[in-house]
Amino acid sequence: MSNDETGDRVRMIVDRDTCIGAGQCEMHDEDVFELDDDVLATVIGDGTLPRDRAAAAADRCPGRAISFVEIEA
């Protein structure tokens, strides 16, 4: 596992008002995102990813509905 994979984790957020239901997030990180019955992304599990994967998830979202925040201690 790379250093980036084990680095700081961040909490994922989905803006359901912006989500277009393309499913890119679920396809790449199915342990953190899933499309619900309304075909909108939702955060599941502990909702965290390593920072590099979080940035990639946000970048590949065509609706720009994904963001992330620091995890408070």
Please provide a written account of the structure.
This protein is globular. It is α+β, with helices and mostly antiparallel strands. Helices cover 26% and strands 27% of the residues. The longest helix is centred in the C-terminal third of the chain and has 10 residues, at 51-60. A three-stranded antiparallel sheet has the order 4-1-5. Strands 2-3 form a two-stranded antiparallel ribbon.
Features:
alpha+beta, Alpha-Beta Plaits, disordered N terminus
Briefly summarize what is shown.
The chain is α+β, with helices and mostly antiparallel strands and 73 residues long. It has a single domain (3-70), classed as Alpha-Beta Plaits. The chain contains three helices and five strands.
What characteristic shape results from the CA principal axes? globular
- Low-pLDDT stretches are 1-6
Number of strands: 5
Distance between the termini: 25 Å
Kindly report the spatial arrangement of strands forming the biggest sheet. Answer: 4-1-5
Supply Rg. 12 Å
Order of helices and strands: HEHEEEHE
CATH topology: Alpha-Beta Plaits
Mean pLDDT: 91
Structural class: alpha+beta
Name of the CATH class = Alpha Beta
The total count of helices amounts to: 3
For the record, the CATH architecture stands as 2-Layer Sandwich
* Helix proportion range: 25-40%
Mind summarizing the main beta sheet? 3 strands, antiparallel
Total count of domains: 1
Percentage beta strand: 25-35%
